[in-house]
From TrEMBL, chains A, B:
One of its GO terms (cellular component) is cytosol. SUPFAM superfamilies: Nucleotide-diphospho-sugar transferases (SSF53448). It is found in: Golgi apparatus. Glycans are attached at residue 155. The keyword Cell wall biogenesis/degradation applies. Belongs to the RGP family. Keywords: Cell wall biogenesis/degradation, Glycoprotein, Golgi apparatus, Isomerase. It comes from Musa troglodytarum. The record marks 155, 162 as: Required for activity. This is UDP-arabinopyranose mutase. One of its GO terms (biological process) is UDP-L-arabinose metabolic process. Its EC number is 5.4.99.30. InterPro entries: Nucleotide-diphossugar_trans, RGP, RGP_fam. GO terms for molecular function: UDP-arabinopyranose mutase activity.
Length: 363, 363
């Protein structure tokens, strides 16, 4: 299978040794077969959710390390309580143990999509292009990404802003099953996304967006510590807001630090809608809470002395504790976990030190 | 020619009696032949620029009124000095004399574009759809316009924001010759826009954009008085910033009044690049001034008692006078013209009165 497609893949793909692919899963990773031409030369970090005694099968020929709950508990000790269990939010453990500059994370129900010409889309390559070219958060360019071949800044775009800002996040989209919430799934059970929008654009400074973790890449050095997926799943009153939480925190911190967030290309093929009834149960509280969270994030101000992602994130945790605890005691717990997450991050990623040792089940 | 295409055009097109098409020109309007199936049932307002003794030929069968400089001087008297001469900025006179709720304005070097399937694009119909559906200025929807068929709000989009905001402006794009400034034209003389991006999106609140007047529609009742294209061309130190100026003023006022601005579809086919050397001469000062104008518009705050477009615009003229006059005496003249424009607008559009009489050369 790899034969035909791989002809279009350069023999040494972009950022081969600088990027890890993080996959949270509870099942055998057969979906990787389809991604083989695009992923095989990269290193994978698999975060096994659920029962740690279960064996996850990974197709032959992939270079990976795998962490189950026992590994997470062993590596983080008491700090492991900041990593969610029985929820794909556990993926952020992979961001923490990676030693690479870039992360791509993808769900195991996501397949290779085709562009309108029928060509298979190398999603990872497009994400890398997005991350390696600047963003334009301070002024909107009507022809979308001005750094793409065949595009530029249009008349009226201030010249002083054309250098752009470093890109921290590349948010990719989904053909077939759109990323809808439970109410929308219930109302539109048959809706499929067939619209291929050939654009990448920067989410302007000051604007929040719903960041989906299904097909997401980021610069770990620039923004990694903000990519905490929160407390979801087992023992928590909420699910399916893990990536949203990470997105809101990340966007606010990117805006403060002058970093860019892009959305648009690449598409993946999202194969299967999750159960809307199960989703409704998970999302239920989030639907209410979100109405207060958005105004909170829209008005967050970070002080000038927050010059690193870690400092921003600790400051954000304080504001969460102060301003959101009144919604539900959950937010006090979450604020604690945000602090624990940063402590654990710094422990595994001592600044200036040589790459730390991550004792996973490396294979 | 009309026969074939018109089969896909409904016999009574959308908003037939509620929309005027405004065309600034210095030449015969042969380009209308190509637009016949889409425009013929609408009323045209032609603003003839340059020598008023010249006769502009309009193809048979179109319903139009035409205003030349003599008409403008006669109708506005001394206030006519707010309408530019020898510059397509004169088009805004057409917005003022229209009595309709909606305006579509298009340049006479813009032809019907084709979508990727080869179908001719009814640009006006798409603009109308954009204007008649809400905007989403307060939160970014990653699947673009959620009101389009086959799309919706994605997971994580706050439910309280899904009603959207009324749409005031629909900014369309251009295939073939992109709308570049003179320096970019000089550097990339052969660049053509071939990317058809199948999306409409709302420019978020607080974000400015470069509004091009080539292919633009708006709700005149909601935002008309802000669509002043400034002082450009004959006797002025600047050109080619008419639509930009209107766009910055309009966006700031839309943000203040809770109105939405969309960009994206529809495309027109822009046939001919203007001369980059001539353009450089016109833009020269704008390139410098713009660097101060953008921070000005980014920080404009309109007081709460500015509850109408007119009040907002008069307030904006005061701030232009106060804060931009230091750049160049031109901005004092412009601030005066902004006030004159609103006076003229109100004179021709007495609120609550029956439609006024516009004494053009109606045919």
């Amino acid at each position: 299978m790899a034969g035909k497609e791989s002809s279009s893949v350069p023999s040494t793909p972009l950022l081969k040794d600088e990027l890890d692919i993080v996959i949270p899963t509870i099942r055998n990773l057969d979906f990787l077969e389809m991604w083989r031409p695009f992923f095989q030369q990269y290193h994978l970090i698999i975060v096994q959710d659920g029962d740690p005694s279960k064996t996850i099968k990974v197709p032959e020929g992939f270079d990976y390390e795998l962490y189950n709950r026992n590994d997470i508990n062993r590596i983080l000790g008491p700090k492991a309580n900041c990593i969610s269990f029985k929820d794909s939010a556990c993926r952020c453990f992979g961001y923490m143990v990676s030693k690479k500059k870039y992360i791509y994370t993808i769900d195991d129900d996501c397949f290779v999509a085709k562009d309108p010409s029928g060509k298979e889309i190398n999603a990872l390559e497009q994400h890398i292009k997005n991350l390696l070219s600047p963003s334009t958060p301070y002024f909107f360019n009507t022809l979308y990404d001005p750094y793409q071949v065949g595009a530029d800044f249009v008349r009226g775009y201030p010249f002083s802003l054309r250098e752009g800002a470093p890109t921290a996040v590349s948010h990719g989209l989904w053909l077939n099953i759109p990323d809808y919430d439970a109410p929308t799934q219930l109302v539109k059970p048959r809706e499929r996304n067939t619209r291929y929008v050939d654009a990448v654009l920067t989410i302007p400074k000051g604007t929040l967006f719903p960041m989906c973790g299904m097909n997401l890449a980021f610069n770990r050095e620039l923004i990694g510590p903000a990519m905490y997926f929160g407390l979801m799943g087992d023992g928590q009153p909420i699910g399916r807001y893990d990536d949203m939480w990470a997105g809101w925190c990340t966007k606010v911190i990117c805006d403060h630090l002058g970093l860019g967030v892009k959305t648009g290309l690449p598409y993946i093929w999202h194969s299967k809608a999750s159960n809307p009834f199960v989703n409704l149960k998970k999302e239920y509280k989030g639907i209410f809470w979100q109405e207060e969270l958005i105004p909170f994030f829209q008005s967050v101000a970070l002080p000038k002395d927050c010059t690193s992602v870690q400092k921003c994130y600790i400051e954000l945790s304080k504001q969460v504790r102060e301003k959101l605890a009144k919604i539900d005691p959950y937010f006090t717990k979450l604020a604690d976990a945000m602090v624990t997450w940063i402590e654990a991050w710094d422990e595994l990623n001592p600044s200036g030190a040589a790459p730390g040792v991550a004792n996973g089940t490396a294979k």
